[in-house]
Records
---
Amino acid sequence: MARVSDKQMELDALYLLEKLGYTITKPNFFRCVATNKELSVKGLNFYQTNNPMYAGCIAHTDDGDLNVLPFSKKWIESTYKELCIKTKNNKKLAMYRLSKILQISWLETIWTMAEESRSADFKIYIGKLNSLKQYSDLTIEDSEPYIGEITELEVEYKEIKKSCSKSRLNELRMFWGNFPDNELIWLQEQYEDWASRHMMDTKALEILIAEICQQQLTIKRMRESGNNVSKELKDLQDLMNSSALKPIQESVAMSNEANTLGIWIKRIENEDPITEVEEQYKDVDGLGKLIRIFFLGHFNKMMGIKNELSEEYELEMSKYTVNLEDGDD
């Protein structure tokens, strides 16, 4: 009988797990989080990165593990083109907005280097950001202020204000406080962005994330004014630490959940447990009753343990017991 190869056994196992509903990425492939499509890593479909925020995004290949941006190059290119249209072909502003979407650092120095080439675009920017050692491990928190005629905040404000009614602004002001309209919109955008990425299942976490958003706004203001933000960044890190939202904490959590099925099951049980079975559907075949009475109840009876199980066993056995003392003389 021919022996099945290890490779074929691996493929069969992956096929079975996918049929059971598990999301499994095959070796040498990685799943784009934007399109949910698996693409070949060897086909250069993803950018490698040293960004600590993506420490858990590991592509397993025959040549070793690679840290990659979880967005495919094709999706990044199409997003960049859309941003160019929205910004009226302002490539610099489009790249700045793309860096916020990808959660990578924005550095004027890197863009200046990209502009020195014939065609400054996202490919040149990301390539230089990853290739220069002094910049490759920076995160979005290390970004520099955008320098230009139209800031990112102003662009977002002009787009959003059209659909943001006065009553809505009053609601935001009740939540955030007496901020200018553009800052209220920015704070709410940031809050909703955090909420879309993390499960805010406690009041404490909601408050902490709101504080994080306001601290981000403080840092943004100070950077635009050219002030030092070291203390403010430390305060932001403390808030993120209290919320367990620091990149290293999230990476560890992602790694643990990716490698441990038990943790994954525990998370489901804690966050989305199944409801209690209705009484009419409990033990429909009577198997639970048989085990409870004739195994557990009988065991307790033999051991001389008086409890509900032994009493239930005695009650059930009395139905099949003949008591001679109750007979006629």
---
Amino acid sequence: MNFKKLIYFFFQLNLVVLYAQDFVHPIYQNHIIADGENFEYITNDHLYKLNPKTKSLDSISIEITQKIGTFKLIKNSEYFLVNSLGGELLHLNENKTERIDHSFSHKNQLKSSLFTFENTIYRFGGYGFFDSRNFFTYFSNKTNEWEALETKSKVFPPGLFDNKFFIYNNNFYVFGGYSIDINNRSKRNSNDELWKFSLDDKKWKLVTKNSIFNDLNFSNFDFLYNDSFYFLKNGELLSLDIINLNLKNYGKLNYLDKGNIIYPTIVFDNTLFTIGNSPNSELSRKNIFELNLKEINVVSSTKLGSYTIGSIGYIVLTISVISLLYFLIRKFLSKPKNIRLIKENMIYGFKKIELSELEKSFLNLFLNNNELENIELVNLIGSEIDASQKSRIKNSTIESLNLKISLITNYKFQIKKYSSSTDRRYYSYKLLKSF
């Protein structure tokens, strides 16, 4: 992209506020990222690159083809906008956004953890349909759809949303946030655990537990610096030493009152840069603030113990093993449950969920056939619609039906897509039981 350079010179106001001359751009907190030594953000018609060190602001004109109020800006080697309500994904291609996914706004991963790793876009957790998720999805460039990430783990964190997270040494760390109470779906529980997921081995590990992690939310302000993760709690700056599990408290810093603490942070040359409102001005006017991290002092330090099983833990483990054996025996002796279709409802065990007319037609075919050709599903859609629109309706119906099947069966059944072994242009679908 060819940026048209706009140079803004700022004047020193004091030792903390670096720039006194402010700049005016409507910066929405979900439309700005920190990338290396630059802040990058979009407005309705421009993409900006702001370098706080060189005091320069570059921009290019872009065309956004739809409303992006619920979208979040993300970048790997290119720019994308991801809908926080669901799977919609826009790609900024040749200065214009284009939609590249085949999904819809399912609203089942609200407040999920969105990140990129090795040029792939991932989401972890999220809230929707009276539950919180504890799995990853990723956007597949092969299918142009969001897929569930296969793992090899034997332990898992609770379903979480609005949590803190960061990537360090190819590991995804998550702590804080909330889960849904299984007995009261309108109640949320604070999470006091720190979990680590290896993006190489695809395994989870519980690192530690501590009450300090309770009532912590996601924040754009959080940042990594010198093997530690920095975040705010009750106005105090804290850092978590990832290697030694030391938690340091730097107390309340007057500097942090000058910013909104809703924008990302950049750290280089031991200096923190962030964006905040200009003093005594309307909210649209922004300043860049800086803080020398070498000059802040530690107020207190706490060693967090690694998670191990003590004597009480062994008792809990024994009870868990007995409960597991009881569950397995009961499951073995019980009659396996199957999906049924009764009137407008899909039934599984004692659970039911209402389906649309087209979802009912699709499910009826799946229940009566081992395998369905793509054309059999397409033919269920009205004949007055053109082929490309039929394909989109078919894909969205499969996706919504699959989501309902997964929810009602607790992911025991899913619709799988298979390409023809002789011609990959042709494919079929099967409703299969997951093992």
